[in-house]
Amino acid sequence: MTNPTAAMLVIGDEILSGRTRDTNTHHLAGLLTERGIRLMEARVVADDARAIADAVNALRGAWDHVFTSGGIGPTHDDITADAVAAAFGVPIGVREDARARLEAHYTRQGIDLNAARLRMARIPDGAALIDNPVSAAPGFTLGNVHVMAGVPSIFQAMVAGVLAGLTGGAPLLSRSLRVERGEGDIAGPFAAFAAEYPDLAMGSYPFNQAGRFGTNLVLRGTDPRRLEAAMARLEALFPG
Amino acid sequence: MTNPTAAMLVIGDEILSGRTRDTNTHHLAGLLTERGIRLMEARVVADDARAIADAVNALRGAWDHVFTSGGIGPTHDDITADAVAAAFGVPIGVREDARARLEAHYTRQGIDLNAARLRMARIPDGAALIDNPVSAAPGFTLGNVHVMAGVPSIFQAMVAGVLAGLTGGAPLLSRSLRVERGEGDIAGPFAAFAAEYPDLAMGSYPFNQAGRFGTNLVLRGTDPRRLEAAMARLEALFPG
Questions:
Q1: Is the reported ipTM for this assembly greater than 0.90?
Q2: How far apart (Å, rounded) are the C-alpha atoms in residues A84 and A123?
Q3: Angle formed by the axes of helices B183-195 and B224-237, to 10°?
Q4: Which residues contact B74 (CB under 8 A, 6 or more apart)?
Q5: A contact residues 121-150, partner B, Cβ 8 Å cutoff
Q6: Residue A200 or residue B208, greater confidence
Q7: CATH 3.40.980.10 fits B5-164, yes or no
Q8: Which among A16, A76, A111 has the least Cβ separation from residue B29?
Q9: How many CA within 13 A on the CB side of residue A117?
Q10: Is B15 at the interface with chain A, CB within 8 A?
Q11: What is the CA radius of gyration of chain A?
């Protein structure tokens, strides 16, 4: 059984200028791994209609799911919904159920649903809405593309809703062994070891903590017994 | 005068699995902005030769500079140098000056330059070495692609060296105005304002701090007088 695949697309000049640090990719990565969906690629693009549409089309053709964050607010630089509609070649306009959600939310707060806020009800034809329990303005799923807000608290709430409806795969398990030897010392035997387990992904990550150099060896796979067996051999190969 | 452009390519399964949080992109983004180089795109790909080579070729064709991080250590999952050589269609092998740097470094520490460590002297033909003042093993520049380590302290040291040798552009300046009104309130007048300054990039970023909702308006450009004039008008438009 193979695991579903996914890509993340972060949209926003503020990430590329260094003003804001993207935290959504890391959040999504952890959740996908738990659910057995392999995150294969992540991209950050500017608030540029062509760049967004090109990335959406490249990623939705290559992977099972695409998650986007950013660019669905009320201001003129929020162009993600239009760019995604263009990528799919479908019309976009204010949708009644999305408008109703905004109206209810703003009426409760005594705030006017003006033209700018109404832009957040623009949804490409054929999309399904993604709930926004934080601030009402919905995301949407069009084909295999899940379009969500960039504000981390809203992104996280939307992702939780989307993932609840997706079929995952066998959880992607990982085990790690901390070895107090340099990466260059263990690279030879570790490579030979890895070659015996083509079904497990293996990586090595050097560390330097409080003057102690060493390497974390990480094994990843979906079969828990296979992973435990490999770990037992690895511990024998590099005894503590 | 136009500013040079750049892309970042992060290489590593550990980022995509959620095990490690990428910090190199944010670090690079801030430095490039200071130097007037526009970061146009960032990508994260897995430790996969084809994925790395395809991304390198897409990015080096599209932008003036490509910066990569990760995959140049001594272990079997460190395949960036070979993938970059493949992307350029050039041979790769152990290079004498790179080997000499490693030998001097390890001899000082009484550590054997074994076959695994010697892999870090594999450099594509035609590349220039990038100094590694932390742990000796060099990065390299091939064409417009700068290949660096993933460990943040080493990445940062290498980037400093590379940027010292690059021609930047007019610094990309930014000014921001904090407005204690919701994004949806100000979106209309802000869009009209932005349309009057096509040479400035403008973004709006909602915040919610200690129960206060508001929006940070950010203006970016290279002409300081133009930026100051726009800021003065913006402050008049949204008085504190």
A1: yes
A2: 10
A3: 140
A4: A183, A184, A187, B116, B117, B119, B120, B137
A5: none
A6: A200
A7: yes
A8: A16
A9: 21
A10: yes
A11: 22
Asked whether residue A1 carries a pLDDT value surpassing 80, the answer given is no
Q: How many CA atoms lie within 13 A of B193 on its CB side?
A: 25
Rg (CA), chain B: 22
* Helix axis angle, A80-88 to A49-62, nearest 10°: 50
Say if CB A153 and CB A134 are below 8 A apart: yes
Put simply, the chain B residues between 29 and 48 with a CB less than 8 A from any chain A CB are 29-33, 38-47
Test B39 with A33 for CB contact under 8 angstroms. Answer: no
Alpha-carbon span B50 to B73, nearest angstrom: 18
Rounded to the nearest 5°, which phi and psi values hold at B104? -60, -45
Q: E strands within B76-121?
A: 92-94
Give the residue among B202, B79, B183 at the shortest CA–CA distance from A151: B183
A16 contacts: CB under 8 Å, gap ≥ 6: A44, A46, B29, B38, B39, B40, B41, B42
3 state SS of B206 = strand
CB proximity A16 to B under 8 Å: yes
* Residues facing residue A148 across a β-bridge: A69
Q: Report how far residue B131's alpha carbon sits from residue B153's, in angstroms, rounded to the nearest whole number.
A: 13
Q: Do A51 and B32 touch (CB under 8 A)?
A: no
Global confidence as pTM: 0.95
SS3 A112: coil
End-to-end, the C-alpha distance of chain A in Å comes to 35
Could you tell me the CA-to-CA distances from B169 to A232, B26, B38, B172, B222 in Å, in that order? 55, 19, 9, 8, 9
Query: Class for domain A173-237, per CATH?
Result: alpha beta
> Whose CA is closest to B134, among A167, A41, A213, A171?
A213
Burial B82-119 (b: 16+ CB within 10 A, else e): bbbbbbbeeebeebeebbebbeebbeeeeeebeebbbb
What tokens were used for A182?
Answer: 């340099």
User: Which strands sit side by side in the sheet containing A65-69, from one edge to the other?
Assistant: A128-130, A139-142, A145-148, A65-69, A5-11, A38-45, B38-45, B5-11, B65-69, B145-148, B139-142, B128-130
Angle subtended by helix axes B49-62 and B80-88, to nearest 10: 50
Q: Maximum Cα–Cα distance for chain B, whole Å? A: 68
The 10s digit of each residue's pLDDT in B21-65 is 999 999 999 999 999 999 999 999 999 999 999 999 999 999 999
Neighbours of A97 (CB within 10 A): 10
The full length of chain A comes to 240
